[in-house]
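Entry type: protein chain
Record version: 2
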Amino acid sequence: MPQPSDESADRRSRLLASAAKTLNKLSDVLAPLAARFAADGHELYLVGGSVRDAVLGRLGNDLDFTTDARPEDVQRLLSGWADNQWDTGIAFGTVSAAKGDQQIEITTFRTDSYDQVSRNPEVQYGTSLEEDLIRRDFTVNAMAVRLGADGSQEFVDPLSGMDALLEGLLDTPSTPEKSFGDDPLRMLRAARFVSQLGFSLMPRVHEAITAMAGQIERITAERVQVELDKLILGEFPIEGIDVMCETGLATYVLPEVPAMKLEIDEHHQHKDVYWHSLTVLKQAIDLEDGDPDLVLRWAALLHDIGKPDTRRHEEGGGVSFHHHEVVGSKMVRKRMRALKYSKKMIDDVSQLVFLHLRFHGYGKGQWTDSAVRRYATDAGDLLPKLHKLVRADSTTRNKRRAAALQATYDDLEERIAALAEQEDLARVRPDLDGNAIMELLSIPAGPEVGKAWKFLKELRLDRGPLPREEAEKALLEWWKTL
């Protein structure tokens, strides 16, 4: 292995010093816990993502440990010290606990074996830290810190995880073919870590994922969903998504995204719809207020997935994608149902996809107040996200056109705000409720009341709030036509 440069050695020293400083701030948790294990004759190591994140200066409230103590001994040692503990992972040698605001997982050394069919290992306890580390997914997650009874810390890195971290590379402790064969979810985790950490795949890892991508079908939809959400919420989701598409993983878990490649959009301003969609995702992220917005990010990525199915070549060489928002909304529902998303998540993302193109009918402000009301009412609670999505969807390189589009949307937002102040658009309801409808029309509860309610709501959207007498007159006239 080549010797590290002075610059690399200096960076290594600075990162390790920073990690030690971070961990020293947790000495009130780490030192007493290590002392309890040492007094009972056991070793305790901080391990995995906790060490990686401490080195990168991004350690959260989740602490992962490994030990030679068996699970029943871990439970005993945690009793009287932890605030709470759980045994939900004990079949895999893991005991979970909480101490203050820290969530703790302690796992006994393992040397698992896999049947290459499911991703669940046959748990076998190991006898050394090295055995435990080599079974992990990536070398950057196979670093450890030995915690001494006296509060000391010793960095342990038998698999050169720090070298990989310094180079920003993801590599597997064993061969990638064995690692991914044992647990195909690790392939998707590779793309997720690209998104979260900004790292790149080692060539052999990229090649193995490309060759083995189909094995991701061994993984349940629920676990795939969790990884996809973590990926899209990462700091570098564009790169993570592109890795999925380059290796072929996306063909199995999110095929609508790579299908957008080479589908030229109607403005002819982007290489293809795929890269346009990634640009929209990036711009939507730039518009977020604070925490990452999962619904907005999914809608930005998927807003144009209906284009391949609606692509039409027009006379003169043009290309159109008529009603791609309608088709795309249905496709979102189908894919997200397959990935076992909640009904609300599916409804929200598909509705944003359905509505994202409507603004383009606004022109230079030709919409009536009725059309503005409908836009805001159809969006409902999603209106702030829709504003961001529509703005992000402007990816033209023509600065004058881009400025004009943003100014036009400013105008629409101002009109929505003005109407909302006058009419409380968030609670648009008919001017008569169900009881008043039944009394006026002398009808019992039933489908006719629903039809009348719908008529009055449409009237309310068209004409704004009406005096009661005028609403009653309109309803009676409508009723006579039935």
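Comment: The domain at 6-167 is CATH 3.30.460.10 (Beta Polymerase; domain 2).
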